[in-house]
Amino acid sequence: MKEKLSEDIMALRASKEFHDGDVVNLGVGIPNLCATFIPEGRNVMFESENGALGYGGIIMVDEFEKVEIQYIDAGGRYFLPKEGMSFFDMGDSFGLMRGGRLDITCLGAYQVSETGDMANWSIPGDTSIGIGGGMDLVYGAKRVIVLMEHVTKTGELRVLKECTYPLTGKECVNLLITDIAVIEPTKKGLVLKEYAPGWTAEEIQKLTEPKLILADDLKEVEL
Amino acid sequence: MNKIIPSFEEAVADIPDGASIALNNWGLAGGPQNLILALREQGTKDLTIITQNFMYTPFPEEVVVMPFMLLPQMKKLIAGFFAAASRYAYTTNLPAEFVEMEKVLEKEVIGHGNFVARLQAGARGMGPFYSPVGIGTVVEEGREKRTFDGKEYILLTPLQPDFAFVRADKADKYGNLTYNGTCRCLNPVLAMAGKTTIVEVDELVEPGQLHPDEIVTPAAFVDRIVVNEPGARGSYEYTMKKLHEMLSIPEVRGAVIGQAKQMVKEEGDN
Questions:
Q1: Does ipTM top 0.85?
Q2: What pTM was computed for the model?
Q3: In this complex, which of B82, B240, B270 lies closest to A69 when CB atoms are compared?
Q4: A154 lies in a domain?
Q5: In this structure, is residue B137 part of a structural domain?
Q6: Does B242 contact A at CB distance below 8 Å?
Q7: Tally of domains within chain B
Q8: What is the dihedral of CA A100, A102, A103, A109, to 10 degrees?
Q9: Count of the separate structural domains present in chain A
Q10: Residue in B81, B134, B254 nearest the CB of A132
Q11: What is the chain A residue with the closest CA to B235?
Q12: Which of A35, A166, B15, B45 has CB atoms 3.0–4.6 Å from A122's, for a disulfide?
């Protein structure tokens, strides 16, 4: 089997979308890794739903001594304080999203549809109602970037004509980065823009339910 | 004027069966741990608990006290996020009766933004209002929808809990409050929304010691204050110490620091 992009490479590709001065919210999972790959010279301010903006790096397991209990992000990870960081209440945090001040959100998902719908909070058999901040993020962010594996561990398709899991938002995804492709949902359908090294459009199509439109400048993933 | 109550027991003594209580739960710090313990001790029943996150933790009760520990006393949950026990790999040791109680609990869960907006409306004395979030999802089911300027909205109702349990970093005896980092979170909203607001605070300072510009919650929103004994269970210092004790155990470090994948079951694990 051909090699797929690692989670780090997917995160690196996503971080290319961040511009200097952007306010960015990173979801749990692969999106979290994006913070590690900010291009040099770009000052990106990370926002966390529980009420923090402009915080520093995430504390990794081998530097656990640095953990301060009052510096926690929405995903339950501890961060370092940073110059220019601010704290605010949860009402302001979600106001920031709805009010249009969040430039980018990167989220994980279970499924993305042909029209850019996404599902990321509930799987069949789960009795949780884990909506959390996802619906607010996809509604409020100017750009929604989804990072997910193209198919499930058991080979089921995740890029579908229609999502079969409960939706987080309709027609909200601006860019989908998977472990084999970069896809842009458009009014005409899903446009395949980039492919992982060694993959052909036909091979990606086989793992994608809706018909992919090939971008005029279709190319290998640029990092 | 002195809003200080000598004990947590006295601070919650008048909370009746059937009361609604709102409290912050995001991370280990910033939650009213001793107020929760006092309410559990009191055994008040049929509670409606209003909190942004209702979930289980891998931490023993000696480390942190969280709203889920009130489950046997609860009738209803209003939340932004509810994670069932079955979602977690580490909650297999949760008492079986909790899992059963969780199933029959009445739940109203509509996402974080709509949840906090309902509390903000309650805090400001507003009536029902329209939100754009949740359109096209299960959240819109059973709710009135209206279109303004070509855009769809759902009708939400305000939340004004009977009691708000607030956790603050510093307070003076008038009830002026400041917070610490992300422990702020829902606390200032709760302080405003509660019909009666009870504060658990780590440090009591003299009036005037807090600069008027640094006060986040003004005294008018606070009814009662109980001061945590430095280093005692539930205090900031205590929780910090317990957290670092957990972090010193290599096997659990990943989960404690929020970087262990096995914390939450993933798609295909069921």
A1: yes
A2: 0.95
A3: B240
A4: yes
A5: no
A6: no
A7: 1
A8: -110
A9: 1
A10: B81
A11: A69
A12: A166
In the set A7, A40, A49, A162, the catalytic residue is A49
Residue A66, in any domain of the structure: yes
Determine the structural domain holding residue A119 and report its residue range. Answer: 7-216
Contact check, Cβ <8 Å, A136/B180: no
- Residue B169 maps to a domain: yes
Residue A135 to residue B111, Cβ atoms within 8 A: yes
What string of pLDDT tens digits covers the 270 residues of chain B? 889 999 999 999 999 999 999 999 999 999 999 999 999 999 999 999 999 999 988 788 899 999 999 999 999 999 999 998 887 766 656 788 888 999 999 999 999 999 999 999 999 999 999 999 999 999 999 999 999 999 999 999 999 999 999 999 999 999 999 999 999 999 999 999 999 999 999 999 999 999 999 999 999 999 999 999 999 999 999 999 999 999 999 888 887 887 665 455 555 543
Provide the Cα torsion A29, A32, A33, A38; round to 10°: 160
**CA separation for the pair A14, A182 (Å, rounded):** 10
- Closest Cα in chain A to B242: A69
* B68 has a chain A CB within 8 A of its CB: no
CATH no. for residue A107? Answer: 3.40.1080.10
A53, two tokens: 């903006």
B182·A130 Cβ contact <8 A = no
**Count of Cβ atoms closer than 10 Å to residue B16 Cβ:** 11
Tokens 């026990």, residue?
B85
Chain A contacts in chain B segment 139-168 (CB below 8 A)? 139
- A47 belongs to the catalytic site: no
**Residue A1 domain flag:** no
* Domain-located, residue B215: yes
Kindly identify which residue of chain A lies nearest to residue B249, measuring between CA atoms: A64
Q: What is the CATH number of the domain that holds B170?
A: 3.40.1080.10
**Residue B222 to residue B92: CA distance in whole angstroms:** 40
Question: What is the span of the domain harbouring residue B100?
Answer: 8-125+160-269
In a domain, B34, yes or no: yes
